Amino acid sequence: MNPNDQANEVTELFRAQTHIYKHMYNFIESMALKSALQLTIPDIIHNHNKPISLIDLASALNVPPANTNPLERLMRILVQSGFFAIEQEGYTLTPSSRILLDSSPITLSPTVLAILDPLLVTPWFSLADWLKSEDATVFETHFGMNVWDYGKKKEGFVGLLNDAMASDSRLVSLVVEEHREVFDGLGSLVDVGGGTGTLARVVSEKFPLMDCTVLDLPQVVAELGGSKNLKFVGGDMFQSIPSADAVLIKSVLHNWSDEKCVKILKRCKEAIPKKAGKLILIEMVIDEGKEGGKLGKTRLFVDMEMMMLCGGRERTEKEWEHLFLESGFSCYKIIPTTGLNSIIEVYP
Ligand SMILES: C[S@@+](CC[C@H](N)C(=O)[O-])C[C@H]1O[C@@H](n2cnc3c(N)ncnc32)[C@H](O)[C@@H]1O
């Protein structure tokens, strides 16, 4: 081998080593982020009202002097991953940490804390075993029961998931303002699997003449109070859905297999007027072939999370189309949003 080829081969090997080490240690980025939230570092920086020095941050956190240097190294990783910036030798917030503030009405902090909770992280250790098993989900291989049964048994688990979904919905509800035309002119709307009603509440406030209903499991909506144009109904979306001009359904179908989705979609179709009704889905659309970018990879991560948790999936446009036609709908329109989700209008 000539010396040039040998040098190239060595360079390639070290590049591969760096690649492997980066991915092997990626979980440290996640854990650093989680620690920052547990320590409420974004709120501390926000409340300081100017760039905060390491010493002031350590003092606000009550970190013993011996741990000032570890704190600096934690912050170095978080600056590198874009959660904080450095200005005038102090730490400041970035757009990503601004939506992690506990004090802000729009915060993704509960979502991060739920996804990185040991209850949702440890099942990943069973991924390989699950692939060789007949179990429906990785979660089941790990905990010996599905996520719904586990929720009935494990105190706090359902609350953890509901808080995460509500925080995601508060952010996603900005699409209602961004795409008012989707909701304009509707006299009534039912949010199927609407959880604690975060999204429906926003719609009902922005459209005070629209009658809004949230349908979710009885135990989810039992204690929830509505308003003049918002009510909560306990029920089962597989059985029947209250009638309305439109059915809204956000981050629900990605929890279910194709077979179950067709059942839900058929119930949705029965609930809306045959001619003028519509279904408004807020879900992800995997962009085949282009999923290498940051947005695309994030959708693939969510797809894996759904697979692990409940045997659900994120879908490509072709897969969505198949579900709509199979459930008796005739056509659809995809409206991309600036975030990870799209709005999909589906017509009878
Ligand atoms: C992933 S959460 C989405 C919640 C909400 N749409 C959001 O985006 O914040 C799925 C929701 O479906 C509800 N759900 C599950 N099975 C249901 C059923 N059979 N009938 C009605 N709702 C159901 C769950 O209770 C949960 O609130």
Automatic annotation (TrEMBL):
InterPro entries: COMT-like, COMT_C, COMT_dimerisation, SAM-dependent_MTases_sf, WH-like_DNA-bd_sf, WH_DNA-bd_sf
GO molecular function, one term: isoflavone 4'-O-methyltransferase activity
Keywords: Methyltransferase, S-adenosyl-L-methionine, Transferase
Domain O-methyltransferase C-terminal: 124-330
Domain O-methyltransferase dimerisation residues, every copy: 22-102
Signal peptide feature range: none
Catalytic residues of the enzyme: H254 (proton acceptor)
Presence of the UniProt keyword Methyltransferase in the record: yes
Keyword Coiled coil: no
Entry's Gene Ontology BP terms: isoflavonoid phytoalexin biosynthetic process; methylation
Pfam families: Dimerisation, Methyltransf_2
Protein name, entry field: Uncharacterized protein
Origin species: Linum trigynum
